[in-house]
């Protein structure tokens, strides 16, 4: 817990984040392969790393010129509440700063959290198909 958290952009180096460290509370988390494919296919990824372990990450999908969507931001429980999530968000928003729109979806309790970074609550729509994550659907 006292080990230093370092931040890295992009992908293509070790360590690879372990799916079992993330997706807390998901009834059907992605498989490791699906997780890695999603990160490789992302426009931008930011990692928080302690030693060999990825303790947090955020990724963004984008056309690169107008719009981006942030599907995942997650920090492992033992590193929460230390500003890791905020650092990851700020690094990501810096990388996406040239775009017109940056969107994400969150549960109502997290609205205030994201307002810290200048995001505003706006109505949204979506559909979820858990079987497409590759894992077992509970
Ligand atoms: C949300 C999350 C990424 C924040 O990461 P973190 O490193 O703990 O965040 P920070 O240290 O930057 O900020 C902590 C603040 O976020 C708030 N926060 C964290 N999770 C929250 C939640 N679910 N609801 C409301 N507030 C929350 C904390 O209360 C704390 O507030 P404070 O600064 O006033 O004390 C982390 O809690 C997490 O991984 N949660 C599970 C996955 C998740 O919900 N991801 C977001 C999907 S939209």
Automatic annotation (TrEMBL):
Recorded GO MF terms: N-acetyltransferase activity
SUPFAM superfamilies: Acyl-CoA N-acyltransferases (Nat)
Domain of life: Bacteria
A Pfam entry, by short name: Acetyltransf_1
Gene3D superfamilies: 3.40.630.30
Keywords: Acyltransferase, Transferase
Listed GO CC annotations: cytoplasm
Domain (N-acetyltransferase) ranges: 5-138
PANTHER family per the UniProt record, alphabetical: ACYL-COA N-ACYLTRANSFERASE (PTHR43626), GCN5-RELATED N-ACETYLTRANSFERASE 2, CHLOROPLASTIC (PTHR43626:SF4)
Entry protein name: N-acetyltransferase
Organism encoding this protein: Planosporangium mesophilum
């Amino acid at each position: 817990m006292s080990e230093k958290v370092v931040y890295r952009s992009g992908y293509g180096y070790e360590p690879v984040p372990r799916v079992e460290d993330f997706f807390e509370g998901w009834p059907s988390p992605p498989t490791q392969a699906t997780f890695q494919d999603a990160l490789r296919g992302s426009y931008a990824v930011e990692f928080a790393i302690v030693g060999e372990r990825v303790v947090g990450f955020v990724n963004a999908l984008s056309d690169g010129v107008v719009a981006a969507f942030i599907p995942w931001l997650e920090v492992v429980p033992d590193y929460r509440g230390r500003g890791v999530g905020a650092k990851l968000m700020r690094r990501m928003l810096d990388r996406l700063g040239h775009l017109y729109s940056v969107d994400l979806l969150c549960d109502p309790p997290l609205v205030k959290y994201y307002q810290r970074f200048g995001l505003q609550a706006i109505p949204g729509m979506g559909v979820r198909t858990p079987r497409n994550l590759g894992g077992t659907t509970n």
